[in-house]
Amino acid sequence: MTQPLEAVKAPAAPHQGRSTTTTATPTAAPATTTHGTGTGALGTAGLVTVLLGAFLPMLDFFIVNVALPTIDQDLAAGPAVLELVAAGYGIAFAVLLVLGGRLGDIFGRRRLFVLGAAAFALTSLACGLAPGAWTLVAARAAQGASAALLLPQVLATITAATGGARRARALSVYGAVGGLSVVIGQVLGGMLVAADLFGTGWRSVFLLNVPFALLTLLLALRYVPESRSPQAARVDVPGTALLTASLLALLVPLMEGRAVGWPLWTWLLLALFPFLVAAFVQVERRSERAGGVPIIPPSLLRIPEMRRGLGIAVPYFAGFGGFMFVVAVALQQGLRLGPVAAGWALVPMAVGYFTASLSGPRLVGRFGSRVLAAGAVVQALGLATLAATVLADWADFSPLRMAPGVALAGIGQGLIGTPLFRVVLSKVAPERAGVGSGVLATAQQSSLALGVATLGTLYLALAPSLGMSHALALVLGIQLLGSFTILGLSLRLPRTVG
């Protein structure tokens, strides 16, 4: 059975159409862009490379789920340490993403991408070779930190080195990659553990990353253009510290509380969270008014597309993460399916998501942001269908019976997730691409973790008293409310998407 997860500068006025471009000397290397405007320098090979760099960290958020029981048997980890194996990655990943985006703006996005890929390969190797449970926990946290260097450079590079229709398509594909990586992670993890390649067992889940991360590194050196903000600034240390503390105060107790029995420190951290957020907001506002360099410029959040898009991102990713975790647990603990069978039960969802993702750019071009509203409606239909099936037919519930509901949910999620990144970043000035993508990626990863922690904990707490079917239906009902929230917020977006 799976264990529970978890598992810039002072903003200048955006200046469009002005660029300063310098060309790198090696002919094999792509151009270096120091501006923010799209230059078309990111070719197809470069786009594939950065998308591979995005796929690996997001895949690893969920791929470890099905390996946790085997890790427990092999390393005698225990529930609390197993929680840290999963949560350590997600926490380090989430809290360092904005900093990773800012460092890319300052020192160069390709440089940070390459550094992140190298660190991801090294830390994945350390995870795969870990001799003990606490060594694995430390390696997973380091792996999450390396992912936080890697992932923000993807969106920032797409924003800085592409333009027009090409940028729109690239952002749509990025959204599709993000959703598919979650589903594929659950399926692939089960297959790898069951295959026990060369006797590696659970270690293959981590060792698989090494060759692909090294390939990403080599391809990036050749095909990915360098870009950075033209007005490099030092890191906002007070803002970074407060943002990190705020996220830690929220994520650590929610992701670890159930495993350790909700001691006093978990409640104290949760109580401290709103005060840390308030302090962070004040520090950032004061820094921007003084001409400083806030880690998250308040003016960035005053962009309607950014603010409302982030409002959609939180319930969307929280629901997505919680759905994947709760359904996987219900299939394995309730229906006694093995990890491979439980993973394959989600294939209709992956097919639905992929199908919707393919049509996403064309639909957005025709209907604009209303595609997100349509996605929320379809997702709600899928969740309602699945909940009704669970309540009416739990005794004979099977992957086949759940297929219509999860397929509809996948289509809806694809219609939301694919254009979401395009909507959020559509009005962000390219010289602020790093911090903008870092904020969005932080919302994504934090919300995934929150969804697993909150909905997963709720399900596991209710299942013994309500029964698995009613607990699952209740959690699906909460996610249904999230779909209506997404619907309401998406209708407030400007219809035309840049």
Which structural class fits the helix and strand makeup? mainly alpha
Rg over CA atoms = 21 Å
The side-by-side strand order for the widest beta sheet comes to 1-2-3
Give the helix proportion (percent range).
Answer: over 70%
For the record, the count of structural domains works out to 1
User: Are there runs of 5+ residues with pLDDT below 50, and where?
Assistant: 1-29, 34-40
CATH class descriptor name: Mainly Alpha
| The CATH topology | Growth Hormone, Chain: A
What summary fits the major beta sheet?
Answer: 3 strands, mixed
| Proportion of residues in extended strands | under 5%
Q: Count the strands? A: 3
How would you describe this structure to a colleague?
The longest helix has 34 residues, at 433-466. The model is unreliable at 1-29 and 34-40 (pLDDT under 50). The chain has one domain (32-490): Growth Hormone, Chain: A. With 498 residues, it is mostly helical. It has 18 helices and 3 strands. Helix 1 crosses helix 6 and helix 14 (347-367) runs parallel beside helix 16 (399-425). A 3-stranded mixed β-sheet has the order 1-2-3. The protein has helices at 44-63, 68-75, 79-107, 109-128, 133-161, 164-195, 204-207, 209-223, 237-260, 264-289, 298-301, 304-334, 339-344, 347-367, 370-393, 399-425, 433-466, 468-490, and strands at residues 21-22, 32-33, 226-227. Helix content is 76%, strand content 1%. Pfam families: MFS_1. One of its GO terms (biological process) is response to antibiotic. It is a multi-pass membrane protein. Keywords: Antibiotic resistance, Membrane, Transmembrane, Transmembrane helix. It is found in: Cell membrane.
